UniProtKB/TrEMBL annotation, chain A:
Any one GO biological process: alkanesulfonate catabolic process
InterPro entries hit by this protein: Luciferase-like_dom, Luciferase-like_sf, SsuD_RutA_monooxygenase
Origin species: Methylotenera oryzisoli
Organism domain of life: Bacteria
UniProt KW Oxidoreductase keyword: yes
Pfam families given in the database record: Bac_luciferase (PF00296)
Keywords: Flavoprotein, FMN, Monooxygenase, Oxidoreductase
Residue ranges, compositional bias (Basic and acidic residues): 24-36
Protein name per UniProt: Alkanesulfonate monooxygenase
Annotated stretches, region: Disordered: 10-40
Start and end residues of each Luciferase-like domain: 42-347
From TrEMBL, chain B:
Upper taxonomic lineage: Bacteria, Pseudomonadati, Pseudomonadota, Betaproteobacteria, Nitrosomonadales
Pfam families: Bac_luciferase (PF00296)
Species for this entry: Methylotenera oryzisoli
InterPro entries: Luciferase-like_dom (IPR011251), Luciferase-like_sf (IPR036661), SsuD_RutA_monooxygenase (IPR050172)
Keyword Manganese listed: no
Keywords: Flavoprotein, FMN, Monooxygenase, Oxidoreductase
Matches recorded under SUPFAM superfamilies: Bacterial luciferase-like (SSF51679)
Stated name of the protein: Alkanesulfonate monooxygenase
Domain Luciferase-like as annotated: residue spans: 43-319
Amino acid sequence: MTIDVFWRIPTHGEPSSHRNRTPHRGDWFPGDDTKAKPGSVGGTGQGYIDYVAEIARAAEISGFQGGLIPSFPMTDEPWVISSLLARETSTFRFMIPFQPGFLNPVVAARMTASLQRATGGRALYNIITGGGGPAQLWWGDSASHDDRYGRTTEFLDVLKGVWNGGPFSYHGKFYQVEDAGLAHPLSQEEYPEIYFSGSSDAALASASKHADYYLTWLEPFDQLREKFDRVKARTQILGRKIKCAIRVDIIARPTEEEAWAEIEKGFNSLSREALDKFQNPDASDSVGAARQRGNRPTTINSYKDLIIEPNVWSGFSLLRGGQTNGIVGSYEQVAERLDQLVALGADAFILASTPHLEEAYRVGEEVLPLLRGKTDTAILRAVG
Amino acid sequence: MTTEFLWQLPTSGDGRYGNSRKERRAERASSAHPYSDGVTDPRGLSFNYFDYLHQVARAADLAGFDGIRIPEDINGDEPWIIAGYVARGSRHLKLVTEFDASRGSSVYAAKNTVSYQRFTDGRFAWQISAGGDDKHRRALGDFVADSEINPRIEEFVTVARGVLTQSPYSFKGKYFEVLNGGFQGALSNQKVPPIYLSGKSQEALALSAKVADFHIFDADTVESIQQQIQELRALAKPYGREPAFALRIDIVSRETEDEATFDARRYWQQSEQGNHQPVINGNLWAGLSTDTTAANATLVGSYEQVTEALVAYAAAGVSSFLLSSVPHFEEAYRLGEHVLPAVRAQIKHDQRRAA
């Protein structure tokens, strides 16, 4: 068995470096007129999708399985990007995050089967259920936190039920269907792999029933080992096997000093407001976000205060949106840390680094070839 | 007023016969080996129906159609995915994507639409349909009563337009709810998709009067269409608005009327319409259509006759033509070459004279 490595598609533009936020590629921020912003609309006939297409092709050429295409209120949407890029990519697998409450499960099944047909089976899911409260109502979804996981389970029950043609009937609390099923030839497609996110107990219960991969952000290594063990134990009770995957930002350079220099420059360009906001985040009912915050020092005077274990820096969300923890080091160190994560239970990675276009080549050329992954020796080392 | 011509993308099958639903050009995975054992087939499993749909869309683009209608058919592929799939291969086409209001959150539909608009320079449009009968809807997980179909479409449109044009936008209705919704920055101020609605019932017409940008009429005689247009105009007037009027009609057009009539009869024999005889009224064959084109009636005639008939509908108030003919790839070129230029020129001429 081998490990799968994915890349990420930035769906909200991105800066051209970790060091500062401008110029920002894409059309999200009004910028500085003296700098070009590839991927912004305006007279050129080129839009952000053209930049995204470049990243997807860079990722597949560089040896990544495909990429996660994040979906948030301020981003472009993964279903749209996947269908638009189907013909322009060859092996790139489209990992589509979505929340079950947003789509009728039969419609989702039809969309997915069609996308499988359009791409030769390159679609997969990142099922998300977390977040909540007013943020959820922004999307037009009023279900409560624990209800949402029940709904996710039912959603996947229906999706799976109709997938191979039916006839399938179901009478759940959230979804009902009668004599449903995909029509031929949609019914002939591979069922998509499911990466499942969510750190609460309700999430784990739902994941253990349907997920192929349990996907988490990077947490302190010991905490992560404990989490993976818990997920695997829960799934085993149901007679299923689950794999584990980690979404992690990295900065890999020829030397460790060069890698930390990137962080230092990025950190020193931050405003006081950004740091204050980072130390006092908004209330949210996401358990995953709290688990990442848990191990942060209370006063931050230097980027070094955010180094929480060797090569792990807990300030990535300051430099770009998203999760806080990431791996920083030389090519060898980054590969080593990733292999340690494999040893404690990871079966797949979703890696990311800014800018995603150039870094796809760098990581593909310099880091992936150093990974041992799940070779026999790696497994022996883990056992020994 | 500009007139638009939309070609239909045959989402559930296409071939050169009247029963074209059974054919899916380029689809290899499911059909038996098409060549004898004595001949090499270089295609293997390289292609499927999506490659063909992409060709039809490009044909419509090249042949001068203004857009394509991507119909929802439970036996075919899913329209939103198809719209994305053909978007980058076409430059000018308006992508009129059909779905019904049971597909999920209206906000999510609007948010996906924002990305479509950003990536296609505002070419994405919606056709929201009532969905099928009770049994059909239940198979789609939709259990609302017939009487709720139109009210739900209205809420779907209201919420989508709300979040696309305002921020923060809140709404709490019977079917949809949103709190402080709306889009920021680059996602804001994207083109609101033009909304096509259809239906003959009083409820459907009343809904179109209130919210539709286009109302689609099923093919019928010019007199009947004219009457329906007047009716809808009167219904829309109290709201101070007037939707555009679209006509969905199939075409069998050939160099001569004889050839067209011959082919029309053959399609009728090949299609699965049983013993139901088409009712012929001039060039309009009511009840004739192929299994995939599936309009209410077909215009059968020479290029000149079909041109004349389409111009008459335009004079009656139709400004959007939803056309279809099998096989859709070849026929897109035929109509684009032989019919559309003459229809456009004549409509322009008539409008200039009227002005």
